[in-house]
Amino acid sequence: MRILLLLAVFATSLFAGPAKLIFTKSFPGSTPAYCYVEIDKNGALIYKESLTDDQPIKAQLPDGDVHPLFELAQQLEFFKSPIESGLKVANTGKKTFRFESEDGKTAEVVFNYSTIVAAQQLLDRFENIAETERAWIDLDRTVHFDHLGINDSLAQVESLWNSKHLAAPDQFVPLLNRITSRESIMHLARERAARLKDEFTASKPASDAAGQKEE
C-alpha cells in the first residue's frame, strides 16, 4: 500500500507545473465561435480558436499583468463557488474560468453573466488578451499575405494600445521589425510600425523582452 502511495505522489510531482488560469468562451455564430486562453503563474500564454488546434499562438505576459489575474481568481476562491447571476439577460456565450493548481487540483465555473465585480474584471482582462491575440493573428496574416492591409491591421493594434487593452505588446515587435525593414511595404505603414515599436520597447525594460514570438 505504501508503495502505491509513493508511486501516486511521484506521478503527481512528475506532471506538476506552475498554477494555471484558463478561460474559454463558446459562442456559435460569433467570430471567433470559440476561444481558449491559458496563462500560467510564470506568464506563459497560450491562445487558440479551436479545440483541435495543435499550433496555438504562444506569448509571454508581463509579471505586472499576470499577478492581477491570479489576485482576481483568488477573490473568486479559485472558482470553487458559482458566479452566474441567474438574471434573465442576453446570451453572450458560454464562458468558463478554470484553475489548475501546482499539485494538480482543479476547479472551474461556467457562466453567461455574473454580477460579481471580480468576475467581471477577470472576464474583461481575458477578453482583452483574446482581442490582442486576434490582432496579432491579423497583423501576421497581412504581413505575410496582404501588404495593402497592413496599415489597417496596425491601426487595430494601435487602438488597443491607446485604450490600454493591448496585452504583452512586446510580442508584436518581431512583426513590426519585419514591416519597417521591407521597402515594398507602403511608407505610411512602415512609419506607424516604427512608432509603435518605439512605444512598445520603451514601455518595459529591455531585459524583459524574452519570450517574444518568432516571425
Gross morphology: elongated
* Rounded average pLDDT: 90
What strand line-up does the widest sheet have?
4-3-2-1-5-6
Q: Number of DSSP strands?
A: 6
Strand content: 15-25%
Helical amount among residues, as a percent range? 40-55%
Low-confidence spans: pLDDT under 50, at least 5 residues?
4-14, 206-215
Biggest beta sheet attributes: 6 strands, antiparallel
SS-based structural class?
alpha+beta
Order of helices and strands: HEEEEHEEHHHH
Number of helices: 6
Radius of gyration: 20 Å
Number of domains: 1
Distance between the termini: 52 Å
Condensed summary:
The protein has 215 residues and is α+β, with helices and mostly antiparallel strands. Helices cover 44% and strands 17% of the residues.
Top keywords for this entry?
215 residues, alpha+beta, six-stranded antiparallel beta sheet, 6 helices, 6 strands, disordered C terminus
Describe this structure in words.
This protein has 215 residues and is α+β, with helices and mostly antiparallel strands. It has one domain. 44% of the residues lie in helices and 17% in strands. It has 6 helices and 6 strands, in the order αββββαββαααα. The chain has a 6-stranded antiparallel sheet, with helices on one face. A hairpin with an 8-residue loop joins β3 and β4. The longest helix is centred in the middle third of the chain and has 29 residues. The radius of gyration is 20 Å and the shape is elongated.
How are the elements arranged and paired?
Layout: H1 2-15, E1 20-26, E2 34-40, E3 44-48, E4 57-60, H2 63-75, E5 94-100, E6 106-111, H3 117-145, H4 150-162, H5 173-181, H6 187-202
Antiparallel strand pairs: 1-2, 1-5, 2-3, 3-4, 5-6
